[in-house]
Amino acid sequence: MAMTIHVDIVSAEKAIFSGLAEMVFAPAVMGEVGIAPRHAPLVTRLKPGEVRVQLPGGGEESFYVSGGMLEIQPHVVTVLSDTAVRAADLDEVAVLKAKEEAEKAIHDREAKIDYAAAQAQLAETVAQLKAIQRLRKRSGR
Amino acid sequence: MAAAKEIRTKIASVKNTQKITKAMEMVAASKMRKAQERMLAARPYANKIHNVIRHVGQAHPEYHHTYLTGREEIKRIGLIIVSTDRGLCGGLNSNLFREVLRRMKEWNDQDIELDLVIIGAKAVGFFNRIGGNIVGQATHLGDEPSIESLIGTVKIMLDAFTEAKIDQLYLVSNNFINSMTQTPVIEQLLPVKPSEEEELKHHWDYIYEPEAKEVLDQLMQRYIESLVYKGVIENIASEQSARMVAMKSASDNAGKLIDELQLIYNKARQAAITQELSEIVGGAAAV
Questions:
Q1: ipTM for the complex?
Q2: Can you give the pTM of this predicted structure?
């Protein structure tokens, strides 16, 4: 039997593929790499493209990744796939959006927190909840 | 019979409420199951990244990423606070806010300033009321948040840490223990706590392409993102299970109320009949 290497393709939201392969091709930033069993340990970034997995006994599966990381150990290949196209400027846009949201919500809010008032307010809510539970127990009969 | 009619309408309205709470309970139960599945699905990614980072850390004892090294003086702390978007989930949010306020007060007493990034409409409302320096927020992520919707909020904090604007970063969210128990936790994200695990048996290192620093930067960013994502997902599972429990007890209470009202209604009905009878009998005797 031909030599095989274990392949895991995962994204932050789910596991995409896990199994053995004879060879794996991935779109690294420096150019496409082909990984055979007993490849030297390597970590690299991926660019958007296709990851192809040659299954033992013929057949090939391919997955689209929109970037991510590739980790290689002699018997294990891990593709940490991004779920979205990521680029520095796109990340910046996301940052701006989150900041904007926060600024929109600021009306007359003070940066200083009045801890005493806040805790009193919360204690009230919690006391209410406790009272409800007690009442419930009493009527539980 | 006026009283009896009133009671009947009351019973009907409580029954309607019960129908609603029952439906919400069932919806929450199914959403909880899905959220739990997503929690499991997110696990392999976090584990793999953690492994790689651990490996890199051990292979390079001399190399220290900014995210790994702690700072001696802590002047400002970043908090990512995860809450739910909607209410009707028992004391879930209140408990979380109480816990975080306690910690914030401790920090405040030590003259440490706080920057907040807020996820979820409930926390936005809460901190709008009580104040706080909010630098970023994200709301209405839905039941299936994508990691993309969190990139911005996380990056604000990561950038702040890199620029030494904040010296520590914490994640505040509810930990899903089981469908009955959820506990608020405040977890340190940055600097990444070194895991005390066994030493590497043999020394080897990766080849880095293009460069170690670049690769590590991206790895670290993804790692923190995945931790925050995990917190958000877990908070959703907690929300749904808390809502399920709250709605279940609401339905039970409605049931009890209906029973009581039914009893009162029957009594009123009987009293009315008895009265009518005695009136007829009294009338017949008088004739």
A1: 0.76
A2: 0.84
